[in-house]
Specification:
By secondary structure, the chain is mainly alpha-helical. Helix content is about 75%, strand content about 0%. The radius of gyration is 22 Å and the shape is elongated.
């Protein structure tokens, strides 16, 4: 028995997870691949997660009760951040479109890119605390969706 085979056998016998992984069939050549680790998509997840956290903090702190919230410097920073995030989402949509893969994610990212400015504008335009709260909650959900659609395991196309 060669040294390489002996080493492989000893590794297989010593760690059950190696044996389990070796027993799995290789993925199909046309199996969907996750894009979550690609730089553009990872940046979207990072930015969206950070902004989601900020919006969560605002909601918990009652920022919606502040009539001047939509023109505050903090909100203006978020507006700029979401504009950049929407651009990145559209870039990601175009990347996937160019590849000809992942129809669902491609469409969802385009929808998020188009919807993000509308959600931010709704926060700025809200005239009552209740309207601001709903608008902030909807923005929070959209930011959360942005993270979840990218990090969800890819599904085969139907």
């Amino acid at each position: 028995m060669s040294c390489g085979v002996a080493l492989a056998v000893s590794l297989l016998l010593s760690d059950p997870s190696v044996a389990l992984a070796a027993a799995l069939p290789p993925p199909a050549a046309d199996a969907p691949v996750s894009v979550a680790d690609e730089p553009l998509f990872a940046e979207i997840v990072t930015r969206s997660s950070a902004m989601r956290g900020i919006v969560s903090t605002w909601l918990a702190a009652g920022a919606a009760d502040n009539a001047a919230f939509g023109v505050s410097p903090e909100f203006e920073l978020l507006q700029r951040g979401t504009a950049l995030l929407a651009e990145r989402d559209m870039q990601a949509h175009l990347v996937l479109k160019e590849r000809g893969t992942d129809g669902d994610l491609k469409c969802i990212l385009r929808g998020i890119a188009e919807d993000m400015p509308l959600k931010v504008a709704a926060v700025a335009a809200a005239t009552t605390p209740a309207e601001r709260r709903v608008a902030l909650e909807e923005l929070h959900y959209l930011l959360n969706d942005n993270v979840e659609v990218i990090t969800a395991p890819p599904q085969p196309e139907v």
